[in-house]
Amino acid sequence: MKPLSQALDEREIAPETARIEAFPESFLWGVATASYQVEGAFDHDGRGESIWDRFSKTPGKVVNGDNGDIACDHYNRFDEDILLMKTLGVKAYRFSISWTRLFPNGDTNREERGFDFYNRLIDALISAGIEPVVTLYHWDLPQKLEDIGGWANREIIYSFELYAKACAESFGDRVKRWITLNEPWCTAWLGYSNGVHAPGKKDFALAIAASHHTALAHAFACRAIKSVRPDAQVGITVNMNNIRNESPENQEVNDFVELNDANLNRWWIDAFTTGSYPKKLLDTYGALGEGIFQIGDNELLKVENDFLGVNYYCDGFARAPRPEDRPAIEGGFMPFPQRVDTFAPSHLTSDLTDMGWVVTPHGLGDLVRRIHQDWPNIKEIFITENGAAYPDVLEDGVVNDVQRSKYLQSHLASLQAAVSEGVPVKGYFAWSLLDNFEWAEGYAKRFGLIYVDFNSQKRIMKLSGKTYSEIVSSRSAF
Length: 478
Ligand code: GCO
Hints:
alpha/beta; eight-stranded parallel beta barrel; two-stranded parallel sheet; 14 strands; about 40% helix; globular; binds D-gluconic acid
């Protein structure tokens, strides 16, 4: 058998077409975005302030002082964007609802113009033959809720429950698939422990609380949606990666990998499948977790899910530190580097994306195989995000993003191999439809299949958009 690092070096997935079948006809091909990253119109129609409005306007938090005030102006241009989706040939659009458009203060006071907007968007998608797949929470928490502690305050689960119920009541006649939370790991650990995301707190105990409250909020929202629409399909989207152990002989590294895996990959899935969290991780949190976990929570956490959403960008690597290594990330961030390439084998670090992330297409197939093996009760998996940032150049009206095209093709080939083996992956959403506001990186990083000129708001289909649409129409990445 080849050593793992050598296997990973083979970027091209072998086209053993005799074994690998096309994606099934029912496979749900889509593209994804998120409200704060694309909508703009930050003060239109009564929208309230979210933590990302506040955070991005705090000096020093976002590259170039960028914010989402205008973003891609998707709020006013969604008709044009739906036409672009049709050109791509996708069957589904994953977007998120901005909580503060519906409830500007995060309480029960409704803003009907916000509901109208999402009704128009959903109706337009359906008329275009594109299924709306709705994420309830993609990080833009009402600032008013953050003012009382946000995700670190247990009360939030009831606010989220009400919000989820209202969405199911208003949109559930047309929306069949719901994602409660997007990447709760980022909400908890980037938002409350290392502070690189809104609300920018740096407190380890708050992050543990947010990890628990997001898991509870997911369960409460699932039950709320099902109480309104028993036939709705409800799931959560988690960001996962394979944490490759490059020093398996080193016990410290082994522990580190186990804890990272528990913190990133297992926490939310174990919560809804078993009602409990990985024991070794809870022991590590020790006294910091006191007062957060309450008697009876295990029953509350466990909930039937219809699918698991997975966002995958690249693998992580761990090995024993060497003197030349860069210092660990600051800010009370637990030992859990995500997407850290510092420790990646050198042949991978010569070819990083614009985010500085390694390119590990085999990891996507490996990850879904692992999910299927470790949590056999998960009946459906959707890749709800996958994509790459590269420094695109617009030349003569064309964006020839060969690297992104290859990234998509190789990741889809890896996925296709796993699906052929029987892993129940039912759909794939490319991140992202459009170049957009990339959180702490502002507009400096482009992930779109479609280029956006942020001055004119002109959209231009990139080569990767064409590549994706060819894969979609042929149902094969080989
Ligand atoms: C995330 C988010 C997306 C990002 C994308 C690229 O995974 O961080 O869900 O909103 O834009 O992942 O970083």
